[in-house]
């Protein structure tokens, strides 16, 4: 082997609850896992200010703090945690090849993909400001809706997920204003009817966001514009939820791993196995339904156990 090629028993691509949990289980099974943290060490949870729905934290925990603890736990059992991200793979032969930062070539007996998915945002400077401040912008109503109990919020989106999140928010918020950019929903009729029938959800069609406003720290209102009339109005709100979809971080695997029409990795039901023997998936790279830290951690455990059994079968 040359200096630019390394042999690895178990490679974990991506951090976050899925990657770190896989690392904990793989390390305890003496699989000598190597984990590359990726472009967003700790994953999506690092953008979440408070996590109150993960078991074992009775007083809650911040997303970044939780990821630091998971990383420390994985490291404690011997996981080799490295900076860098996978830029290319070749799963066509018996050796699983992965390139890190376009330079280092890894030859892996097993690979666990835990690259996650990235929430789509509108891209407004004001939206990104309050997202980074943790002051009222979120892409997950189930994660953060609790913090807006008895308050007024705005949600952007027109699909089934947006309707589902708006309905979820309506159960705890005083008022939910739903912004639909076009003149019709993309959601199924049953989901559309559900939000239309909910008394405290106001739906504004043909409406787009102009600016998320606040005091620099927390959100206080949302400036919107009617696309038909160009009329602007300001909606009082302490929370701004974006539900326009997620983009799975799976592009580099598409030539070898089976993906669905939206780019999520297809796993064999009930397992973490992909269509390539020895390559497994955990977390939001395959999960477009639940997308929770606890479910990601669960599939991380599954992936490590499946990888361990695969290695045992090769002995």
Question: Can you characterise this structure?
Answer:
With 315 residues, this protein is α/β, with parallel strands linked by helices. 26% of the residues lie in helices and 27% in strands. The chain has helices at 16-28, 63-76, 125-133, 141-144, 160-170, 189-196, 293-314, and strands at residues 5-13, 33-36, 80-82, 86-90, 96-100, 104-113, 117-119, 137-138, 152-156, 175-179, 201-204, 207-214, 219-226, 232-236, 239-242, 246-248, 279-281. The strands form 4 sheets. Strands 1, 2, 3, 4, 5, 6 and 17 form a 7-stranded mixed beta sheet that branches. The chain has a 5-stranded parallel beta sheet with strand order 8-15-9-10-11. It has a 3-stranded antiparallel beta sheet with strand order 12-13-14. Helix 1 (16-28) packs parallel to helix 2 (63-76) and helix 5 (160-170) runs parallel beside helix 6. The model has no long low-confidence stretch (mean pLDDT 94).
Overview in brief:
The chain is an alpha/beta fold and 315 residues long. The protein contains seven helices and 17 strands.
Question: Which short descriptors sum up this protein?
Answer:
17 strands; 7-stranded mixed beta sheet; alpha/beta; 315 residues; 5-stranded parallel beta sheet
